[in-house]
Amino acid sequence: MTPERRIRVAAENLHTVFPEANSLDYFEAGVSQAFPTDELAGGSAFTYFAPKQKTQYLEIVRSPDWAYPVGSSNYRVFFAGEHVSYTHGWIHGAMEAGLRCAQQAHTSANSLPSKQLYGSSFDPGFGFV
Ligand SMILES: Cc1cc2nc3c(=O)[nH]c(=O)nc-3n(C[C@H](O)[C@H](O)[C@H](O)COP(=O)(O)OP(=O)(O)OC[C@H]3O[C@@H](n4cnc5c(N)ncnc54)[C@H](O)[C@@H]3O)c2cc1C
């Protein structure tokens, strides 16, 4: 379909669903965006896992990384986004991952005494309990 035809079909479909709105009478202009053909969107609107990839990799990509000191639980890098959630493909997944990252950051920050977090020369004046 051409972009003009897509806009027309969408407007007609809206009219079919809500005829009482007389939306075609008010129609002025439209914009069409085809994500599957959008190079900058990577040809997709969101993540598509291949079969079994989610089972295999999700727990790994949800895990925080870059512990400092090495071997500690004080992680510095956290992975957010719909693609690292159980409900990928939805805004819900992005929020779920964001909340999980906040929780992981909080847990990491609490894993060391404050002096180790900030270095011995800086005492923020409050402790992480
Ligand atoms: C057409 C379409 C319709 C959709 N409809 C729905 C719907 O009805 N309901 C629903 O729940 N979900 C819908 N979704 C999915 C939903 O929009 C996504 O799941 C959600 O926005 C993902 O959020 P995110 O934070 O993971 O990523 P994004 O919202 O993509 O945010 C990533 C951000 O990172 C920025 N960024 C990228 N690279 C860099 C970089 N190198 N440096 C700095 N910033 C960078 C980007 O500019 C972007 O702002 C739809 C998506 C599309 C495309």
From TrEMBL:
The Amine oxidase domain, residue ranges: 1-104
Top-level taxon of origin: Eukaryota
Molecular function GO terms recorded: oxidoreductase activity
InterPro entries in the record: Amino_oxidase, FAD/NAD-bd_sf
Name of the protein this chain belongs to: Amine oxidase domain-containing protein
Organism: Clonostachys byssicola
